[in-house]
């Protein structure tokens, strides 16, 4: 009787932990919808508290006896500690505000915290199925809302045109790209995982997500998925030379394909492409001009001080809220924005935007910070990506990091994190059964 009672108590704890994880994810996923209903804009910062809290609760309550689970969690936590030390060092070197350090750290590590929370719970098959069902519901909500915005509300006819088709990511500059990315990811996941549903239904949902991508004018999302598929194929190659050749070719293909799609194959020239690439890489010439210490190449110019999402526009947009908390800015982003404004490509496509994920991490945190982040991604790839679907999703994140600041978008990244973590838990249970 005592053993049975203990098991029942443990199951209650597991349900509570998984529910808290889901709620933490929802605070980021639906934040823009809640703000649109009249809640103050500070709601967009709530996930910075709920995700670490969910991770902490899961770690405290989890009593997994699996040595593999414990090892994975410990390795990721060690990687997060190393990244935290480096971001603090960068902040101290560059006199960045404490709020810069906290926000930049959480923006970049929230997905890993959520993965830790999921990985440390010894989930049952019932728990994973419930989490899967809720994730599918969330995916359908954004998809249906986007189709409603296009075909019923006709938001594409208002100012902003197709960029107004954003799903749940309302009132967000790149919301149409984020919404399309989440939608196509959901469609791929549903097509591959929901085997209990008929093929015609899964295929229909997948096609609907492609329609979402097209009507929101986010064709780069399709190109990213194509390149990620090629890269996944490259990982199957045993010859390192072939792997490098296919990888470089795939990355170049995404730039060419999206540029052609966005410009209707008209007036294309090599000079224009070179001009676009020059704009894309302008941050790599501007950022070093602000170096003031021999350590800057290693530790960057400080969290939120260059061309990541925080420094690029988030500090500016929420300055009234963050300035009293000691937020700091550097004129790097202003210098880059001035180049963007003077360029013909400035408002044409995010494909040639100098504000993109990997450049932002390098500019803010230097080579050491970028290396530490890649180490965390490497741990996820090796320890948690247990099938090709998970690896494919991780590769799409990598490619998106070359285009825009999507790797710092909480709604998108937490969606990807919960997908990878859930898929790992599902495969773990299959191996045990």
UniProtKB/TrEMBL annotation:
Protein name according to UniProt: Oligosaccharide repeat unit polymerase
Record keywords: Membrane, Transmembrane, Transmembrane helix
Tree of life domain: Bacteria
Regions crossing the membrane: 12-31, 37-60, 72-93, 105-125, 134-153, 173-192, 199-215, 221-237, 249-270, 355-382, 389-405
